[in-house]
Design a protein that fits this description.
Order of helices and strands: HHHHHHHHEEHHHHHHHHHHHH
Structural class: mainly alpha
Largest sheet: 2 strands, antiparallel
């Protein structure tokens, strides 16, 4: 914190930093936005959509070096108002686009998989009335709701604004590209933190490596760094398998894997391994799968096996390993507390931290590190049921859309990516709150947009096929009636 206090007490330094941000960082963002968000179709409003996506990422990130967990509006700091500002900017951008298209995306909020998560967001907002921390519940539910609006608007713009199936697939891919670029930028900021705030970015570790890599500003825990690296690594692998640029995605894959290893986070490594397995199977790269399995088995049976075990052990005690670094203790306390409010929970994004603070006297952790336990303690059986139904629909939809996606090289590649990303998120959901908390919801959102857009494409193709069949039948009837002579 000393560096932060120094900046605040030195107005000249603070002014220079602001000037540096305005003259270098902002133009760099604009130039990068223009390059990355360039579309092969003439739809300039998509760049405005990408701006909203970036604003919501900034609004859901933690801009605080202290990592202090706050429970009420009275405890809010400047960083909380910065997040609120980004969130409002994102919402206003969404409303600007929605007005331009006369809120045509609204129908997507009451049907399909996005409609399920819209109901989930509304239920979370409703829980403000009985929440143990009303301010926290209201804000986080509002944040989640705005993200769902963004997903519905994105799917609408791809499906209804862009003309032609090939152009729609290119537009859909551009949303994926932009999201992965934001993930990459987040990881780059982690390394910027190492250079500027090493005491915050390098967390001491008793493992093989003397440190674990984490984000300083924005704050990203080591597990979060590992998770982002696992997702980006799976995406890079998918694009390499599907024949994309090796010059770009080869180094990106290496960068992601190395960053994941430097984070020394075990569950993201497991998630990455399973995600890579799914990607290789979906991409029908069975030779690569066999070679990877043989190499992996060889390393585990070699002299390096002890080093690998020590790396995964991270120098933790038997008790820490048995409780999954304290997670099972959090889960047990949460499940016991859930019996008292099993139907409605303690309030969205508030129940977990309430149990940790009041039942376990742990004030520096904000969640119970499990999507399903957190959802149960926050929104009760009702919220848990909505979430599980939504996840089931997503998985079933992805599997059912395989044939539709296979009709285009772009959609097929995105389908493989979605499988890999969903596998990473599903594994991590056991140990973290990926589907219901902060910026990871945006990553889940690209999968929701894909499922929605491809579902509409499948509907269009069925309609076209039916119309074609009806035209053929009509022509046959006219020939039989003697019209064609």
């Amino acid at each position: 914190m000393s560096n932060l206090f120094l900046f605040m007490s030195d107005p000249v330094t603070l002014a220079l930093l602001i000037l540096l941000f305005a003259t270098l960082f902002v133009p760099a963002i604009i130039l990068t936005l223009g390059k990355v968000a360039s579309l092969p179709v003439h739809t300039a409003p998509f760049r405005t959509l990408y701006f909203a996506w970036a604003a919501l990422l900034a609004g859901s990130s933690v801009w605080n070096l202290s990592r202090e967990v706050r429970h009420s509006i009275n405890q809010a700091g400047v960083d909380n108002y910065v997040r609120l500002l980004f969130l409002v900017v994102g919402l206003m951008t969404i409303l600007f686009l929605a007005t331009r298209y006369r809120f045509g995306f609204a129908s997507g909020l009451i049907r399909g998989v996005i409609g399920i998560y819209f109901v989930f967001a509304l239920w979370g907002g409703l829980s403000t009335f009985w929440s143990v921390y009303p301010g926290s519940t209201l804000y986080k539910s509002f944040e989640y709701l705005v993200m769902v609006l963004l997903f519905a608007l994105s799917a609408f713009m791809v499906s209804e604004v862009v003309r032609g199936p090939s152009n729609r697939m290119l537009a859909l891919k551009s949303i994926f590209d932009w999201n992965w670029f934001l993930v990459f930028a987040s990881l780059v900021m982690v390394y910027v933190g190492v250079a500027v705030w090493p005491s915050y970015a390098l967390m001491p570790s008793k493992g093989v490596l003397p440190f674990s890599l984490q984000g300083a500003l924005p704050a990203i825990a080591a597990n979060g760094v590992g998770q982002l690296s696992a997702i980006l690594g799976v995406v890079a692998l998918a694009r390499l398998i599907m024949g994309k640029s090796r010059l770009l995605y080869g180094p990106l894959f290496v960068f992601s894997v190395l960053t994941m290893l430097l984070a020394q986070s075990r569950s993201p490594i497991l998630a990455f391994a399973l995600g890579a397995l799914v990607v290789m199977i979906a991409g029908r790269k069975f030779v690569l799968l066999i070679v990877s399995a043989v190499l992996g088995a060889g390393v585990l049976l070699s002299a390096y096996a002890g080093t690998i075990y020590a790396y995964m052990d991270r120098g933790q005690s038997t008790g820490e390993l048995d409780t999954l670094t304290g997670r099972t203790v959090f889960w047990k306390a949460s499940l016991e507390a859930a019996r008292h409010r099993w139907l409605t929970g303690y309030g969205a994004n508030a129940g977990g931290r309430y149990i940790l603070d009041n039942n376990l006297s742990i004030s520096d952790i904000s969640t119970v590190h499990s999507t399903y336990v957190e959802t149960l303690i926050d929104t009760g059986v009702i919220g848990s049921a909505i979430l599980l139904v939504g996840l089931g629909v997503v998985w079933v939809s992805i599997v059912k859309l395989r044939r539709t996606a296979a009709m285009s090289p772009i959609s097929k590649a995105l389908w493989v990516e979605c499988l890999g990303v969903m596998m990473v998120l599903s594994v991590r959901s056991i140990f973290s709150v990926v589907f219901v908390w902060s910026s990871t919801v945006l990553i889940f959102g690209v999968v929701l947009v894909f499922v929605t857009v491809m579902g509409r494409e499948a509907g269009r193709r069925r309609t076209d096929a039916s119309n074609h069949a009806a035209q053929l039948l009509s022509a046959q009837r006219r020939r039989r009636s003697g019209v064609y002579r």
